[in-house]
Design brief:
about 25% helix; about 20% strand; 5 helices; globular
């Protein structure tokens, strides 16, 4: 089974234990899971997230610590602090940088962040631009999220797919699979689509 699902699952383990159990059971299909306790690592370690991170890691799943970059406006030190907390509290071995700029002018800022992420132990780095960025960003990370949005927009745009691209699609119909090898398509919509499990999980995990 190919590890193709990159899952941003933004639910607390105490509220949705069955959802996290399903992800652990689906480990062979997962490229990684984005851990996002509090729009980042939060101000203190959360035992419930630490426990589920241990279970995912034991199942062989990459754990990507979430950090918002606010399109280059969030201070470098604050982003790095998030990444270090993810490493120290949850054993994250990767990083998922959100709201990443697309323009070439921001490349020096993100180059510094990429170096800091590697120093913080991120063997896998994902940059979530949500749209097609300047291709030089591909030098910084294993994956670039070049589309994040609803299925209606996705099917209209038909965004380009490359081996280092990842597409995150919400409000997607059952059975829909984005064009990129690494991807995630969820049924959720509205303000909190990433609180639903992706299409494509093995039936035994549901």
């Amino acid at each position: 089974m190919k590890r193709s699902l990159l899952v941003p699952y933004y639910e607390h383990p105490a509220d949705r234990p069955e959802g996290w159990a399903a992800l652990v059971a689906a480990a062979p299909a997962l490229h990684g899971v984005v851990l996002n306790p509090a729009n980042g690592a939060g101000e203190a370690a959360d035992p419930a997230f630490a426990e589920v991170a241990d279970r995912l890691r034991a199942a062989g799943v990459r754990i990507l610590g979430y950090a918002d970059t606010d399109y280059g406006r969030r201070p470098h030190a604050d982003v790095v602090a998030d990444l270090l907390r993810h490493r120290d509290w949850y054993g994250a071995d990767g990083a998922f940088l959100d709201q990443v700029a697309t323009a070439p002018e921001a490349l020096p800022h993100y180059r510094r962040l990429a170096v800091a992420a590697r120093a913080a132990g991120a063997a896998t780095l994902v940059l979530n631009h949500g749209a097609r960025p300047d291709e030089r960003y591909a030098e910084l990370a294993e994956l670039l999220v070049t589309f994040e949005g609803p299925w209606d927009t996705y099917r209209t745009l038909g965004p380009e797919a490359a081996p280092h691209h990842c597409h995150l699609v919400y409000a997607a119909p059952p059975g829909f699979r984005p064009a990129t090898e690494v991807h995630c398509a969820v049924p959720g919509a509205g303000a909190h689509p990433w609180g639903t499990l992706p299409h494509g999980l093995p039936e035994t995990a549901r």
